[in-house]
Design a protein that fits this description.
Layout lengths: L26 H7 L2 H4 L6 E2 L12 E4 L5 E5 L3 E3 L40 E7 L3 H5 L7 E5 L5 E11 L5 E3 H8 L5 E5 L6 E5 L7 E6 L12 H16 L7
Parallel strand pairs: 4-8, 5-7
Antiparallel strand pairs: 1-2, 2-3, 3-11, 5-8, 6-7, 6-11, 9-10
Length: 247
């Protein structure tokens, strides 16, 4: 259900991109953010400690006045969790010799997702309960990811990750920006000899991620992903003040 937005406080000087809060060098990103740039300077925006993310770093992390989690990173790691086969379903984007990375999990924190099918983002969790302690976000909330060219895609908060890493999304989310052909590389398979196709982190940064509390899908079994994506679109449009279509 819609969240009540607290009244904004007057913003500070617009000349200062205080604390490197967005990639100011990217004019297209600034245009896509729209009014969110002023929210980043709002007195009720809470800057969060980014130094805890030593495994994959962030340039800035905060919660906006309405509780939205916002952060930007130089790139996004690739998550390949979730099912990789299902009766009656052909994963047309999975290479036949694909090999998962060593951290692959057969199920996402939001059950029923696949990195090959569903656009989802990962938030830090274990062992510090980071997103539970620092944000109002919960598994299943809608999200958006903005790439360095100003394009953005809808996603869902679908998986929990290490507490030292921030900035990770599914193969399907990456493919929205670069296409499936750029997501894989062929190399030596471990621990067995031979070759296998593995994920490759595409260069699409800088990347901004926003997760919107209270935008979970309306049903659980199966999860109403379409509803969460629609709520994310509407929330982003409301915050940015523009109706730019997602990818």
């Amino acid at each position: 259900m819609p969240r009540k937005v607290r009244p904004s406080s007057p913003a500070g000087p617009s000349t200062a991109n205080r604390d490197n809060r967005y990639p100011v060098q990217c004019a297209s990103v600034a245009a896509t953010l729209g009014k969110i740039r002023q929210l980043l300077l709002d007195k009720q925006t809470k800057t969060l400690d980014k130094s805890v993310f030593t495994g994959h770093t962030a340039n800035y992390v905060c919660t906006l006045p309405d509780g939205t989690l916002y952060f930007w990173t130089d790139d996004m790691d690739v998550d390949d969790d979730g099912y990789t086969s299902k009766d009656g379903l052909v994963l047309i984007n999975k290479p036949p010799d694909w090999a998962p990375d060593e951290d692959h999990q057969p199920q996402t924190s939001l059950p029923g997702l696949s990195a090959f099918v569903d656009p989802y983002v990962v938030l830090p969790f274990d062992p510090t309960n980071w997103y539970l302690n620092n944000t109002e976000c919960r598994i299943g909330d809608g999200a958006v990811v903005i790439a360095g060219n100003g394009e953005f895609t809808l996603a869902v908060f679908g998986d929990e990750g290490p507490g030292t890493k921030i900035g990770e999304m599914s193969l399907a989310a990456h493919a929205k920006f670069v296409g499936w052909g750029q997501l894989f590389t062929t190399g030596v398979a471990h621990p067995l000899p031979g070759s296998a196709t593995r994920e490759e982190r595409p260069q699409t940064g800088p990347m901004i991620t926003m997760v919107f509390p209270g935008t979970r899908g309306r049903s659980e079994d199966p999860y109403d992903l379409a509803s969460a994506l629609e709520q994310a679109r509407l929330r982003f449009w409301s915050l940015s003040g523009d109706k730019k279509p997602p990818l």
